[in-house]
Write a structure and sequence with these properties.
- The complex is a heterodimer of chains A (about 290) and B (about 425).
- Chain A has two domains: about 230 residues, HUPs (Rossmann fold, 3-Layer(aba) Sandwich); about 35 residues, no CATH class.
- In chain A, about 30% of the residues lie in helices and about 25% in strands.
- Chain A contains seven helices and 13 strands.
- In chain B, helix 1 runs parallel beside helix 3, helix 1 packs parallel to helix 9 and helix 13 runs antiparallel to helix 14.
- The chains are: A alpha/beta (about 290), B alpha/beta (about 425).
- One flavin-adenine dinucleotide (FAD) binds next to helix 2, strand 6, helix 4, strand 8 and helix 5 of chain A.
Chain lengths: ~290, ~425
């Protein structure tokens, strides 16, 4: 079943689903020096910062086009807090899929589980026009989950979006700016589609008090595996995860870095003169200086 | 349309949460507003939580609350440069139900306590600063927060915003506290393995010790240092009246370094690693500094109302009881739908009739007298040490000769009459 069939013939409103992940605050997290794994208890759990931008963007689009913002997360029961945070930003509703059978999922199994939940949400809400994800999660960092969901739904994934230029509900088209190496590209896609967003897309606003009050009273809806339909248990959790983590280690801290001041021209001049002083940098094979 | 609650409580410390919990439990519609990332995020306390007043709010809370250790021994050290006179009381009974008091880490405790208020139905919002009370026709009718669309209304606003209470101040309930009305305190939480703590303090896993340190720990200024045992960390801190700091030209963190390096104290914290550094004011003006407590539609509780017994380092318990009494007052007012100052004045009476009013009255002149007469902390503690030193050093001097030498050392400077006067005065303020 494709999304298209379900969102067809809907009114001129924009129903948006945002996938959000609760992550440990990696600015604070410690790495256990013995096992080289993340000591998750050492850092508070937060809403993945990119996902906050995704929710903010959904709220902004809803304000323009009308419709509804729903959030979806997979995680342990504590992830309800991340969903409540989204309600503070302005989401209307939130679903958490939480079950031991989801545990240990890699991106393949995560996107499968989320896909199953999306399918159910499409039926419940009568349609989803747009799915938003963060560019990546600050802990797992793969950026694969969004495209994984899109692939399964057979809708286009538009990654690294820095601006939603236009949504045309009549023609069911969207135009976005995608960040590329130097600059951006403007692309058009049919909706429904899935966007993964960069932080530049917006500023996450200081939530208004009524949203705070709503969030404080809000209880996200929790689904287990049994609440989803046609689930292939073998594709869930650890069992459905072919990824093998070989080894983890904190990156070596590089030393001796120097920050150059001045405008870009001065910086380049300074950088070149430093590099010229580093003899080895400009040697050719035979040891001759260039 | 901004929402209206029965009660808005500003500040989710012990005072505010006690009030919110009690109100919510009795079916009132309560909003609890906290500026921190979560309740307790930045709250500071030496760490002694009193069982009695907490139990009046949540019976048998110790079965569930995140507590550190029940205190079974209270030690008092009178410190000189390289000696100290000590006294202590240890009771194993305190280590068993129903306990006497506990060490706590406020970041954990306040968060838990607020979650209990939420369970009772209070609405809690964090990361929101109340900027001012909304006053209409001389009545407080709500609060203005720093958020967009940030006004919210209530029949009664309870100010539990802590020592500085900018809100009570802006209502004209009190002026800026004077330097002698507040103590500036700094403390550190220092990580140390449980086993090492147990050995150093001679306790087992579920027993704790509190140490209050007078004299050289504040370089003779009016104040104390403290050292409390958590499960696997120590709280060490020091504070003096702001005026004391100014007079002695001391910087709080330098004073704490001095305490940590003191040869009598250092062995206890040796090898411990600083996890957190915290600084906070304690209201210590006592009875005479208690501001106006109620107005039309508003009640002031806890530190915001200067409800601290500095001599016995009791603050959190007074905060809790005041929060509870505020809730009871509001419930009474609700019956008649009358939230005027006259009805809410029940709170003021209740405070003065409770142990809070009585204890504050008992010690009403203590801070002032000790502040005006620095000899207590500056001279008598070193003298006490020298007296003990003289008496117990076996050097062939006959004991009677030693005694008269000791008496002379006390009377030398101030004369017999001076000492008698000091003793009498000290007795008067704490009697
Ligand atoms: C090396 C490595 C080892 C790992 N080991 C384990 C392990 O042993 N056990 C374990 O349980 N997990 C493990 N994970 C985590 C798990 O694979 C990922 O958390 C999960 O698959 C999402 O991938 P990601 O974090 O890279 O997210 P990304 O793909 O980077 O996230 C992009 C976006 O996808 C969406 N998204 C991602 N995750 C979710 C979610 N859960 N719910 C809703 N939306 C979501 C968000 O919008 C997010 O911004 C590991 C990850 C990595 C990279
Ligand atoms: C170093 C130190 C050691 C102490 N030791 C002890 C001890 O061992 N035992 C003891 O019983 N007492 C002790 N005290 C005293 C005790 O900490 C206080 O008396 C007690 O915390 C008072 O509680 P409260 O709820 O009135 O205020 P607080 O605990 O200060 O709580 C006030 C709350 O209001 C919030 N707030 C403030 N302004 C606003 C605003 N505008 N908008 C929203 N929120 C706001 C704050 O973030 C805070 O959470 C100690 C104090 C200090 C500083």
């Amino acid at each position: 079943m494709s999304l298209e069939s379900i969102s067809e013939g809907r009114g001129k409103k924009l129903n948006i689903l945002v996938c959000v992940k609760q992550v440990p605050d990696t600015k604070i997290i410690k790495v256990n020096p013995k096992t080289n794994t993340l000591d998750r208890s050492s850092a508070p759990a937060i809403l993945n910062p990119y996902d906050a931008h995704a929710v903010q963007e959904a709220v902004r689009l809803k304000e323009i086009h009308g419709g509804k913002v729903t959030v979806l997360s997979m995680g342990p029961p504590q992830a309800k807090e991340a969903i409540k945070k989204c309600v503070e930003i302005g989401a209307d509703e939130g679903f958490l899929i939480s079950d031991r059978r989801f545990a240990g999922a890699d991106t393949l199994a995560t996107s499968y589980a989320l896909y199953k939940a999306v399918q159910k949400l499409m039926k419940q809400d009568g349609g989803i026009d747009l799915i938003l994800c963060g560019k990546h999660a600050i802990d797992g960092d793969t950026g694969q989950t969004g495209p994984g969901i899109a692939r399964r739904l057979l809708i286009p994934p538009l990654t690294n979006v820095i601006k939603v230029a236009e949504v045309n509900l009549e023609d069911r088209k969207i135009q976005v700016h995608r960040k590329i190496e130097d600059g951006y590209e403007l692309i058009e896609s049919a909706i429904p589609c899935l966007l993964t967003v960069e932080k530049e897309i917006n500023e996450v606003e200081y939530s208004p008090l009524p949203n705070m009050l709503k969030a404080a009273r809000y209880t996200p809806i929790v689904w287990t595996v049994d609440d989803l339909e046609d689930v292939d248990i073998k594709q869930l959790g650890l069992k459905g995860s072919p990824t093998i983590v070989g080894k983890m280690w904190p990156p070596a801290k590089s030393e001796g870095a120097q920050i150059l001041a001045g405008d870009s021209r001065e910086q380049v001049r300074e950088a070149v003169s430093i590099m010229l002083q580093q003899r080895e940098l400009f040697k050719v094979k035979g040891g001759e200086r260039v | 349309m901004p929402e209206k609650f029965d009660v808005i409580v500003v500040g989710a410390g012990p005072a505010g949460t006690s009030c919110a919990y009690t109100c919510a439990k009795n079916g009132l519609k309560v909003l609890l507003i906290e500026r921190g990332e979560f309740p307790g995020a930045k709250n500071v306390m030496g760490g002694i939580l009193y069982r009695k007043q907490m139990e009046e709010i949540i019976p048998e809370f110790w079965k569930e609350a995140p507590l550190e250790r029940p205190v079974v021994e209270q030690r008092f050290w009178f410190l000189d440069k390289e000696s100290m006179v000590t006294t202590s009381y240890k009771a194993l009974e305190w280590g068993k139900e129903p306990f006497n008091n506990f060490t706590v880490l406020r970041a954990k405790f306040d968060k838990w306590f607020a979650s209990k208020a939420v369970e009772q139905g209070a609405v809690l919002i964090n990361e929101t600063v109340v900027l001012e009370c909304i006053v209409e026709d001389g009545k407080v009718v709500g609060v203005r927060t720093d958020r967009p669309d940030g006004d919210v209304y209530a029949d009664v606003v309870v100010l539990a915003d802590g020592v500085n209470s900018l809100l009570a101040k802006s209502l004209g309930f009190h002026k800026e506290w004077k330097p002698e009305e507040v103590a500036l305190t700094v403390m550190e939480v220092m990580k140390l393995p449980k086993k090492v703590i147990n050995e150093r303090f001679n306790v087992n896993d579920d027993q704790g010790v509190s140490v209050e340190i007078f004299g050289d720990s504040t370089k003779g200024a009016l104040g104390t240092a403290f050292l409390y045992t958590n499960k696997d960390s120590l709280n060490i801190g020091v504070g003096t009246t702001l005026s004391g700091m100014i007079k002695k030209k001391m910087k709080p963190y330098e004073l704490l370094e001095y305490v940590k390096e003191h040869p009598m104290i250092k062995p206890y914290i040796d090898g411990a690693e600083t996890e957190e550094y915290l600084a906070h004011l304690i209201p210590e003006g006592g009875y005479n500094s208690v501001p106006k407590l109620v107005g039309d539609g508003v009640i002031v509780t806890g530190d915001a109302a200067q409800l601290v017994n500095a001599i016995h380092r009791e603050g959190s318990n007074m905060a809790m009881t005041s929060g509870r009494l505020a809730a009871e007052t509001i419930m009474r007012a609700k019956e008649s739908e009358d939230y005027s100052e006259r009805t809410l004045d029940y709170y003021r009476t209740a405070i003065y009739d409770s142990f809070i009013g009585k204890d504050l009255k008992k010690y009403k002149d203590a801070t002032h007298v000790f502040e005006e007469n620095p000899q207590y902390f500056e001279q008598y503690i070193p003298l006490m040490n020298r007296a003990m030193g003289t008496f117990f050093t076996v050097d062939g001097t006959p004991k009677r000769e030693k005694q008269s030498k000791i008496i002379k050392s006390f009377t030398g400077k101030n004369g017999r009459l001076g000492v008698a006067k000091d003793l009498y005065r000290a007795w008067r303020v704490v009697k």
